Amino acid sequence: MSEESNLYTFENETYRKTYWHTCSHILAQAVKRLYPEVKLAIGPSIDEGFYYDMDSPFPFTPEIMEKIEGEMRKICKEKLKLERFELPRAEAVKFMEEKGEPFKVELINDLPEDAAISFYKQGEFTDLCAGPHLDSTGRVKGNAIKLTACNAAYWRGDSSRETLQRIYGIAFPKKDELDEYLQRIEEAKKRDHRKLGKELGLFMLRDEGPGFPFFLPKGMTLKNTLLDYWRQVHKKYGYVEISTPIMLNRQLWERSGHWDHYKNNMYTTVIDEVDFAVKPMNCPGGMLVYASEPHSYKELPLRVGEIGLVHRHELSGALHGLFRVRCFNQDDAHVFMTREQMQDVIQETVRLFDEVYSTFGLSYTIELSTMPEDHIGTVEEWERNQDILKAAITDMGKDFVVNEGDGAFYGPKLDFHLADSLGRTWQCGTIQLDSQLPERFELEYTGEDGQKHRPVMIHRVVLGSIERFIGVITEHFAGAFPLWLSPVQVRILTVTDRADAYAGQLAKALDGKGFRVETDLRNEKIGKKIREATLEKVPYMLVVGDRDVENQAVSVRTRGGEDLGAMSLEAFAAKLEEEVDSKAIL
RNA sequence: GCUAGCGUGGCUCAAUGGCAGAGCACAUCACUCGUAAUGAUGGGGUUGUGGGUUCGAUUCCCACCGCUAGCUCCA
Fold this sequence. Notes:
The protein is an alpha+beta fold. It has 19 helices and 28 strands. The strands form 7 sheets. It has an 8-stranded mixed beta sheet. A hairpin with a 4-residue loop joins β27 and β28. The longest helix is centred in the N-terminal third of the chain and has 22 residues, at 13-34. The protein is globular, with a radius of gyration of 29 Å. The two termini are 41 Å apart. The protein binds one RNA strand through β7, β8, α10, α17 and β26.
């Protein structure tokens, strides 16, 4: 019964998608009424809202978008019935040809032989569509529709084909819900790491180096703290750490396959008439380290980590704050092993990922990326490796989606995606299975049998790029990092200058215990000092005035606005220590 | 790279085909004030860069650079 009553609410995903699908048809109808010369392509509902792609001889400016929105409201009021009908292929093609819709004709021609070719008619407007739809445009609440953006999109996602204009929209059954949604988006934008990074003094980007981030003192503290933690975890899991050069010669990149597969994205130069490339990945250097001495099966799996600075010439349009940059630090590692050890090593790596992500309270989704067209190695090898990855995570009871053809050129991979404040996901962790590079670099180990064998390896990163990960956690915590990560953990605020000397003693004592502490001795009112420390998300403020000097105490306030009252420095330090050690997320 | 929009002191943002403005920040002075902004005064801008139109351009036009959104890409 209750299921029945939920059938026509947005709680029901099918209904929601249907509602938005009808909205996209209303959008198309509105555009065709206002601008009949526009050619329609395709208009599905998506996870959040709907869009319609079309080819227009003029750009859709904000004014035009507003006009279209108005027309959409009108169509809702007209309560047009949506009627479904089917046509045989030849007639369907003819129908859309007569309407002058070349994209629709192409779609019909590409439908499978036995597919039903269905249309939906609403008033004077008819669109090719598999459905389903609402029964009337009157079901859509006109004043709860909002066109949110207009962007370019390639026809059928193919960058060699027409550039269409995609109009995005969102709609709800009630105006209140639309307002609430828009409000939520506004709130989410306040967590944007680009905004917070500037406000909190973490990093900066400059025109002089597009995509090359500068880390400021506070951001550097955060980065170093993160790396300290990373080293601690990896030590526990049996990793050793190396560092390989940032630039290596062309011969090496040809051997690894990068020169062939990745040249356009590499920064290259000529030194003494020899081509060199700045590394876009750490692995070839790692191969050389492995190959530099003989190995025994007793050493395997051999876990070798490297925080490596890599440079990749990404397309300018793809750059995005710290999420997509042109130079970044990968928390890379290569694990060399026997074939028999593969599943165990993958599972051990996933456990390490779980430990790291849960420390930050982050949840992820896993994608399995399979063989791309442009690959090295045999199909059998690829399938075998894909099956091992699949089995390893299935065995651990984890869900994943398959990303067909998106593997690295040398092997299939498991990608771990984390979400930003607006729900867009970014690949952070990855586990890439590789039996190609060991081949190319002729890596060997001596087996129990005294014979030479070829190891296999994984390439893996947990944080992915330190830069991207810092962006993700900045948004995740809205800049209010857990105590252990906070660039400034404690700020001592004086009420009057009579407490300056005492504040200095406190700072020295806390610094001596290993805490990151600042003093604010400015001749400002205490309210102002508190306000600023709060806005800077400093976890703890120590307010010290005459009273505290006299009692040799500290008055503690949190960035959450909580007044913890007066306590001894020792009691406060003990509290800090406990919170840092537990890496608590408050 | 593609399409559209945007680019004004350190930051957030006004304004205009005719002397470029506010708040915050910064400096100086006064105030010594106990839990989210004390007041006064002052300095700071070739309005992203380069061309063009115009008596005059920050505003209009062109190119380039950068940013934003999405598309494409992401070994």
